Every structure is written in C-alpha cells, then in structure tokens.
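Friendly challenge for the regulars: who can give me the structure tokens for this chain first? No prize, just bragging rights.
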Amino acid sequence: MLASIQNWFLQLAETHPKWNFIFFYDPVQWQRLVSGLWMTIKLSLVCLLLSVIIGIVGAWLQGARNPVLRLFVQGYIQFFRNTPPLVQLLFFYFALGQFTPTYSPDGWLEVPIISNVGWAIISLSFFAGAFNVEIFRSGIEAVPESTREASEALGFSRLQTYIYTVFPLAFRVSLPALNNNLVNLVKTTTQAMAIAVPELLYEMVSIYNDYSTAQNASMLVLFLSYIVLVGILVLGMNRWERTLKIPGVGE
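First reply, four minutes later:
Bragging rights claimed.
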C-alpha cells in the first residue's frame, strides 16, 4: 500500500514536474517534513503553555498594591504589544544572545546555553503573554466586586481570592479572546524561521530550495498543515469553552 502511494507521487512528479511531492516518496525528504512538523507542534505547545502562565501571573500583578510591580507589568505589556514579533525575535537572539553564557561540550566548540529554539520559545511566549495579560485583566474586571468582597469576608487573602474565586470566573469570560490570541501565536511560530529554527516552514523552504520543482507542492502541504493544526486548536478551545460555559450567561 505504502509503495503504491509512493509510486503514484513519483509518477505525478514525472508527468507534472511542477507538482513534485518529493517528500512523499523520498525517505530523506519525508523525514525533513516530519521533523519540521514535530518541531512546529512542540514549539506551539510550549509557547501556548508559557504564554498562558505569563498572562495569569501578569493579570494578578496588575492588581498588586506595590506600584513598582504594576509599572513593571505595564512596561512589559507596552514593549511587547507595540513592537513587531519578528523584531523581538531578532533582538532576543542576536542582541541578548551575545550576553548568553556558553559551555564547551568537547573542549573546543563554544555553545550558548540557550539555543535558537530556546530564544524562539522565550520571545514568542513573552509576545503572546503580553496580550494574554490584557485578556485576563478584562476577564477579571468583569467579575462583580461583590463576589470579591464576599470572598474576602470569608477570610480569603488576596491571592486566595484570585485563585479560588476571581480567576475561575474570569477565565470563562476570557476564553473567546484567549482562543483568538492562541491561534495567532501558532501562526506566529513560523517567524522562528528567521533564526534558523527547523520548524515546518523552514524545512519546506529548504526542500524546495534543494528541489525547485517541489515549490508548489511544498507550499500546498504547508498551507494544509497549518489549516489542520489551527483547526484542531480551535475545535479544542471551542469545546472547552462550551464545557466551562456558565448557564444563563451570554445567552
């Protein structure tokens, strides 16, 4: 079965040279496609998780009594919301990367402790996290003040009120906007190509640079791959949103 599929794509490349799906019959190119897709999935998942954590912590710090903490969070939000993510990525990798400590695994080669993948995770997580902070803040402001006062009347501290009372309600309100931002983050991971992170776009471009007849096929597979990846995320988030929906709210 597999051999017949490979032969079909091989014949397609011979009869229609502009549609050379070489990665479907060449094991080496197939491995490059799979490794790029897997890197995109890992990069997306890690950035999604870290950006949500940043958003949760940042939203809580926005209500801190310490004005220095509030000013720090505001500065962070303005910096990452008002500059392009690609510029941020290049700044982290080329500027801050110069100050990164290195280690020598063989006594000769100096390797930075944070790789290009690490800088991509840091940059993209902070970028999406800045938007998540504002998303969660708007959700927190939608929680009635009487709910907070009731929690405090029961003897809850500010942190306990946030964890057990305010945030669970705010999270439900924030889910639609959070869904949009996380979808945008998955698409933004393609910019990691600029610092040679071997994600899907990087590998597909490399393939059609080596085999010019594979350009159309590579871009088609790339396009469909992101439709599937983002579609899975959207379906999962929509199902989660329906599960957490508060009866009578938003109807």
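The mean pLDDT is 90. The chain has one domain: 39-215. Your move, everyone else.
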